[in-house]
Amino acid sequence: MNSADERDIRNVMSEVTRDLEPSPVLMELVRRKVRRRNRQHGLLAAAAAVVLLVAVGGVLALRPWHADNRYDAPLAPIPGFDQPTRGDLAGDNRYADDVTTAWGAWARQWQVAKGNSYRVTELGATNLTWALNTPAGRVAVIEQELTVSEDHVDHPGVAIGYLTDIVGRPHVVDALWEPLDQPLEQLPFPGGTGGMLAGADRSVLVVFDPGGPVGYSVKRTYHPDGQITRDDWKPLHFTGGVAVVRVPPRADQGAIAVAPRPYGQSQPLWLVNTADNAGIYQVGTVPSRDQNRPDGRLNWDTYHLNGPNPGTNECLRLPSPVSYPTRSPFTDPLGASEISEGPFTACGTTPDGSGVTIGDAVLPGDPAFLWYALRSPAGTIRYGYVGPFDASAPLPVKVTLPSGQGYVVARKGAVLSYRINNGPWQGARENAALVPAEATAVQVATNGSSTVVPLG
Amino acid sequence: MGQEPGTGFDDFVRGRAGALLRSAYLLTGDRHAAEDLLQDALERVYRRWSRIATSPEAYARRALVNGATNRWRLRRRRPEAPLIDAHDPADPDHAGRVALRAVVENALRELPARQRATVVLRYFDDLSEAEVASLLNCSVGTVKTHASRGLARLRTALGPTFDAPVSPSGRNS
Fold first, then answer.
1. From 3.30.200.20, 3.40.50.720, 1.10.10.10, 1.10.8.60, which CATH number describes the B89-173 domain?
2. Which residues of A288-327 are buried (b: 16+ CB within 10 A; e: fewer)?
3. If you measure CA to CA, which chain A residue comes closest to B47?
4. pLDDT tens-digit profile of A52-98?
5. Domain boundaries, chain B
6. ipTM above 0.85, yes or no
7. What percentage of chain A has pLDDT greater than the value 90?
8. Where does the RNA polymerase sigma factor 70 region 4 type domain start and stop, copy by copy (chain B) (predicted)?
9. Chains A & B: contacts with CB separation below 8 Å
10. Which residue among A6, A115, A148 sits closest to B123, beta carbon to beta carbon?
């Protein structure tokens, strides 16, 4: 190896990271994480033996916690590993065999996978923790002892697999493994799986009894000012250690939340099988969100509403749902709250001198929606939730700004002009435009044809 | 948690978050995983600020490396996804950079975690061998071995990239 190689590697790494910048609200995200962690401490301190381990047969909740979130106990056998299977299919040996076979094929991938930080060197005994019928088919939770090697040091652990019926056969829809000799601080969700969705259509919610009152919500409520609440909480009733309820069947169930009561006092339970991943999980090296699934956002660019294009830099200086400096609106307090903004953003200045930004965004499980933000000349920021849009409409973006500041209209590739009553078409602008409140119609011209869309 | 970190932490994040994110990206090979990793690392920095305020960057880098190499959860392989950048659509270098990034991501993923960490810390973050050894809790000799093997594997994987220009800026040409 010579210095030229080193220089090349440096150059390549610099080149591919050149335009990566952290989120403008990184600080807020970190503080939110701290607050979440603090709440989690409180929950764990109050009910350490309660929360999560019922879901996995009591694997981790019996472990002592310290106030600073360290787990510090001698290695112990997996608690509850030898307990009998729970659920109404507990005596169904054929189903147990099918689950064990499906799980075994899955788990063995760990031993042959390339590129992992850790290598599973040994898979031990299995224990079928849960096996039950639901209206959407059977579900099972299975555990397996394993040994993981890192740098020739073996770590004992437990794997947990979640299976549901797809086309009549048990299918692994999520899996994880937990070390039994490492600080749990390392885990993103320490033992935190509280339930799963059953069936290929995810139409049934299965929650394992965490030992306290728990409820669920299936939808978010978006308020005009951008705040999001959940107003449809229903209590869960556990029978035999599990609650099974029907939920609206959807391809993506990211909108479902399960949380301890009283709601908002402690962290929601982690659910598995909430997105369309069944069948594509493999052991790999890329822990990431499901980034490729279409979510309805507009694949547009950044436009200026009344200045020169592209307005990227100017838009970045204006507020957006993820750049709000103190508290982000559009945040789901008790569910999957990670908002994804679209590449589409438009910004400009309204007649009263306010900065305006509009764009689209999406929360898991819900349709993409349009939002706007207005920053007054005095610096006050006001958000607005506009709602879902029809991307195939002649004019997908038609936003009425408050206080008579006009309309924002947009369609990628179109020339947009407006008129007042029967006056002439004016203000022609490509892609996006801010039109006055007096305008009564917008003309959308694309490829030689045009459509008139009324305003108001 | 002890005393609130105050403005020192804010200044640290403002000044160093970009560099840490880029390191995190190279450690994980994934933009979103890098952001998550950075947030986790900064959360740890935040909580321990009173103890580490004199050298937060070293602690943050250690947290990044530990977070990247100690991922106990099952890794889920998803379809390869393009990075979502705040880029200028008219940037003529962008397509070349996206292509190069895909090649580099794949090459880095093929490296064992500690080898990858060594390459990133040594050749991207420009840390000394002793500093890398300290961060990875291993000997300088081990760092040399990891660096040498990692570079060799990257050199092989990226060979065609080195042999051809990758962007109109002329780098590597």
1. 1.10.10.10
2. bbbbeeebebbebbbbbbbeebebbebbbebbbbbbbeee
3. A34
4. 333 333 333 223 333 333 333 334 456 567 789 999 999 999 999 99
5. 1-71, 89-173
6. no
7. 33
8. 104-154
9. 190
10. A6
